[in-house]
Amino acid sequence: MVQETTLKNTGLRGVTVADTKVSFIDGEKGVLLYRGYRIEDLAKNSTFEETASLLLSGELPSPSTKYELRNKLYEHSSLPDYIIDSMKLWPEDTPPMQALMAAISMFGFEDRDNGGTPEDYRDKAARLTAAMAISLTAWDRIRRGKEPVPYSKELTHSENILAMMTGKEPDPDVSRVLDICLILHADHTFNASTFASREVASTQAGIYPAVLAGLAALSGPLHGGANEKAMNMMDELADVNDIESWIKDRLAKKEMIYGMGHAVYKTYDPRAAILKDVLNTLSAKTGHSELYRLCASVEDAAVKILTEKGKDKIKPNIDFYSGTVYKMMGFPHDLFTPLFAVSRIAGWCAHIIEERFGLAQDKPSLYRPAAEYVGNYCGLVGCEYKHKDG
Q: What is the pLDDT of residue 380?
């Protein structure tokens, strides 16, 4: 239900705009649930395919349906020739997020959305989930002068991403960490990109334009782009001897410490805590122990300084560690945000389906927030609206 508010310029923060059954956050306690399951349990015991199935259908797959989504992803894993041919004409410096938006739009050429049922949309969601991964990896290889690597039926989705990126057999331990990353990024209630997707879906536009809206919103540095910014910051700090002074100077200039603080969490982001736990093992395996120590030092210094300033609720969020994890896996910085999208597609599609077919029935069908005009009026004689200067 729409919640009435007299507050202005809130950016909709704290304003309830719709009901959802997809995910839940308690920002004060650091709790994140997908369909009632704690994120810690899913990261420990589930796979990305199982978690995506949970988000899209409302239930974890049974033993008999465990590989259903994996099989669907393989069925939809062919990259159309016209997309590959088009990619080979694109400028080599095309940013991966922009390339991903272009490719996903092109997938819609032959998968037109003329309405349908929730099951039709879930099938499109499987195609989009596959399309995100194969488009991103294909573009990364093409821009490096290599041919795309086909999706394998024998591999998990995470293993396929690594294999399609590198052309090599993926390491099982690294693949599992990537799987955990995809689970952690799969949904996060009404964040900016999910709300963008739902807003477009509320107009009864199809699933492709709704997903493209999510991609566009995710590309911003205040949303999905923050993990790349955080990693760039870590690179800058690698040559800094006094991290505490660097942080104090940055805060004095009112500059951001990327990866610290969150719009919802007033404590440690539970997803960041999970990534921090796996980071030490991953760093030793990939030869990045020094990077792990740097991250730990930056976190300790930033939390200490912020606490001294009375900002003890500002703790690391998932962006603080996700970029570091991706770098340890060998991904270039400009793939960090697109990898976020490769995961979040599951949540976007779950919310789009809910908006079109689910709980949106007891709210106005079209999102249409109000704004308060504070500009000038026409000032014409007889106009009922007086000019502000009288």
A: 62
Structure tokens at 356: 């079109």
d(CA 122, CA 285): 37
- Residue 272: in which H helix or E strand, if any? helix 270-286
Catalytic pick from 185, 188, 223, 262? Answer: 262
Query: How many angstroms separate the CA atoms of 140 and 125, rounded?
Result: 23
- From the list 37, 54, 96, the residue with the least C-alpha distance to 224 is 96
- For the record, the structure tokens of 280 come out as 């030490």
The candidate with the shortest Cα–Cα distance to 127, out of 68, 77, 182, 198, is: 77
DSSP alpha helices (H): ranges in 167-242? 172-185, 192-201, 207-218, 226-237
Indicate the CATH number of 226-328 among 1.25.40.10, 3.40.30.10, 1.10.230.10, 3.30.70.120: 1.10.230.10
Burial 283-292 (b: 16+ CB within 10 A, else e): beebebeebb
Q: Which CATH superfamily is 23-222+333-362 part of?
A: Citrate Synthase, domain 1 (1.10.580.10)
Q: What is the pLDDT of residue 336?
A: 94
Identified catalytic residue from 76, 223, 319, 351: 319
Domain ranges in the chain are: 23-222+333-362, 226-328
Cα-based distances in Å from 262 to 40, 138, 158: 19, 33, 27
Q: How many CB atoms lie within 10 A of CB 48?
A: 28
pLDDT along the chain (390 residues), means of 10: 58 85 95 98 97 97 91 95 97 97 94 82 96 98 97 97 96 96 97 96 93 95 85 87 91 88 89 93 92 91 91 89 93 95 98 86 79 77 58
User: Is 262 a known active-site residue?
Assistant: yes
Task: Output DSSP code: residue 24.
Answer: E
Q: Fold match between 23-222+333-362 and 226-328? A: no
> What is the pLDDT at residue 106?
96
Q: Is 123 among the residues known to form the active site?
A: no
